[in-house]
Amino acid sequence: MKIKNLTKHSETYIFLAIIVITLIIQWRSGAFYTPNNFVRLASALIVPGLMAIGAFSVIISGGIDVSFPALASLSIYIVTIVLLEAGYTGGIWLPILMACVIGAFLGSINGMLIALFRLPPLIVTLGTASIFRGFMQGALNSRQLATIPEGMSSFGNSILFYVRDYATGQTARMPVTFIVLVVVLVVVFLILRFTMFGRGLYAIGGNELSARRAGFNVGLIKFFLYVGVGVTASLAGLMRVSMMTQMHPTNMLGMEMMVIAGVVLGGTAITGGRGSLTGCMLGTFLIVMVQNSLIIMGIPTFWQGAALGVLILVGTGVSAFQVTRSNDPARIKQGGKDKAL
Questions:
Q1: For 35-49, 101-115, 316-330, which range has the lowest pLDDT when averaged over its residues?
Q2: Is 18 helix (H, G, I), strand (E, B) or coil?
Q3: Is the pLDDT reported for residue 107 higher than 90?
Q4: Cα Dmax for the chain
Q5: DSSP string covering 170-234, please?
């Protein structure tokens, strides 16, 4: 029965897929199962992982957000340029506070348009993505910043631990920024699992009308959902800039497809109402692993787009199949008989 239950969860299949793919990569390159590679993959997961948490929260509510990379870019560019002009020499806490406040404000724009005016999330976030990008490149005349505030660069260069591959003599380092991913992941897990807000997200994704009848304030939940996505995206942008120790305004633009692909690939229903953070992280890790391992295997980088496209099709196809299967009247009827027995 335990094995049968495991086969009903998407997380099981994505985990098995990761195992199979890692074996193939190890066979082709001989360099996957090394401490250095694991640390590099964990480091590469930080920014996509943070963005995936926000995207996951939106998708389970039955919505979609494609503006979070542009939001993160604008938010962190404002933080960086303001602190540089002010000659800030303090620690990381002020940049974090500024990023969260600006991200919350930008996210509230999406939330207000979607919750108050009941506009389609895809149309709204497509529009605000263009607005954020245009405001950054036009009004702010954004440019690449070779230096960032000392507190941000020091935080980005801080190390949790080193690992060494004695066969090659190479070392890899785990950045302190990984802690931010863990903290955000734990906080969002607790919110989704133990609060009415989290239950409301799943209820709205399952059936918004039923959620309203059940007493959930759908508009308020959606508003604060997009505020939270703005905060999470801004934190991801801050971690990206801090680790790179420079600010590139367009560096994060275009990440939405990779992030959403990872969330859907992890078993989150594209129509909302079903999914888990475990699957979200596994799917995102699979995307990051494939993109990073193509280089190890000596495959040209232009194949990354093709690999990502295949994963998007597979993830969306599996999600659609699961929704169709769960809505099959014959299966629903059979399931009722099984429960009665």
A1: 316-330
A2: helix
A3: yes
A4: 71
A5: -EEEEETHHHHHHHHHHHHHHHHHHSHHHHHHHHHHH-HHHHHHTT--HHHHHHHHHHHHHHHHH
Helix H segments across the chain?
Answer: 2-6, 10-29, 35-60, 68-86, 93-115, 121-134, 150-157, 177-194, 196-206, 208-213, 218-244, 256-265, 277-296, 303-326, 329-340
Q: What are the structural domain ranges in the chain?
A: 34-256
Give the pTM. Answer: 0.91
CA gap 190, 170 in Å, rounded: 38
Match 């594209």 to its residue by tokens: 270
- Axis-axis angle for helices 196-206, 177-194 (nearest 10): 70
Cα(219)–Cα(163) distance, rounded to whole angstroms?
48
Q: What angle do CA 207, 193, 17 make, to 5 degrees?
A: 85
**CA-derived radius of gyration, the chain:** 21
Residue 148 pLDDT greater than 70, yes or no: yes
Quick one: which of 63, 159, 44 has its CA closest to 113? 63
Arithmetic mean of pLDDT over the chain: 87
Length of the chain: 341
Question: Where does the pLDDT of residue 337 fall: very low under 50, low under 70, confident under 90, or very high at 90 and above?
Answer: very low
* Nearby residues of 287 by Cβ (< 8 Å), 6 or more positions away: 48, 258, 261, 262, 265, 308, 311
Strand partners, 161: 174
Backbone angles phi, psi at 136, to 5 degrees: -65, -45
CA distances from 29 to 146, 245, 304 (A): 35, 31, 17
Who has greater pLDDT, 293 or 315? 293
Nearest-5° Cα angle at 239, 264 to 229: 45
Q: Which of 112, 67, 125 is nearest to 256 (CA)?
A: 67
